[in-house]
Specification:
There is one protein chain. It contains 4 helices and 12 strands. The protein is of the alpha+beta class. The chain has one domain. Strands 1, 2, 3, 4, 5, 6, 7, 8, 9, 10, 11 and 12 form a 12-stranded mixed beta sheet that branches. It is globular and about 60 Å long. It starts with a helix and ends with a strand. Keywords: Signal.
């Protein structure tokens, strides 16, 4: 019996070693989800081109028929990798690139208005992630408009809410491939305020090039 005593003493140590080796072998044969890196979904070069009008500090100038001007400036620009999860409470499955911008009016009339919040403007663009499609949107005043970036880049049919004009001449300048959002009507029991935007014209290269208010005022890009 004394001859076997040292071997018996080593049994706990050998058991721990064998368990460690066994778990390592299982991980190499069937790697667990915990060892996988989250997928990175990013915007393609063609999709990133839609961000061109939103360089930080870029200024958009508009004029109306009476000669008044409005100036919007890109004041905020963010480019983040947003985490995504397949199920609530699960670990991060992927990261999705999302670009967001904020424009502010910088003309003097803007700061004097009590309803300045009505003239907010922003743009967001999020990469496609798995089954989740690419998302692009423009907020212009009272309107929240989906931009058909994916449809245009893949030459698919556009939604019924927007149409593509081959060109549009604005204030002596000709813009190509212009997205037109036709006149948007308020609810039947509501009257549109004169300042509310009802029609927007947009291009990939320049952003908003014209918008029309309910009161009939047309603002053209300078």
């Amino acid at each position: 019996m004394p001859l076997f005593y040292p071997f018996v003493q080593r049994l706990p140590l050998l058991g721990s070693l064998m368990l460690t080796l066994l778990l390592g072998a299982c991980d190499s044969v069937m790697p667990g989800a915990e060892s996988e890196e989250p997928t990175q979904y990013t915007l393609s070069k063609q999709e990133q081109a839609w961000i061109t009008p939103y360089r930080l500090g870029e200024e958009w100038r508009f004029a109306n028929q009476a000669g008044y001007e409005r100036r919007y400036q890109v004041k905020g620009l963010s480019d983040k990798a947003q985490p995504g999860m397949a199920n609530k409470g699960a670990r991060v499955q992927y990261y999705q690139q999302e670009v967001g911008t904020r424009l502010e009016r910088v003309d003097s009339a803007y700061y004097e208005r009590a309803d300045a919040a009505h003239f907010a403007a922003s743009f967001t663009l999020g990469a496609a992630a798995g089954e989740q499609p690419l998302e692009a949107a423009l907020q212009w005043g009272n309107l929240q408009l989906p931009l058909p970036v994916a449809e245009l880049e893949t030459e698919q049919a556009l939604p019924a809410s927007v149409r593509l004009l081959p060109s549009l001449t604005v204030g002596g300048r000709t813009f190509n491939n212009v997205l037109e959002y036709p006149t948007l009507q308020p609810a039947a029991n509501q009257a549109a305020a004169a300042w509310q935007v009802q029609r927007v014209y947009y291009t990939k290269e320049y952003g908003v090039v014209r918008f029309v208010e309910a009161g009939g005022t047309v603002w053209d890009r300078l």
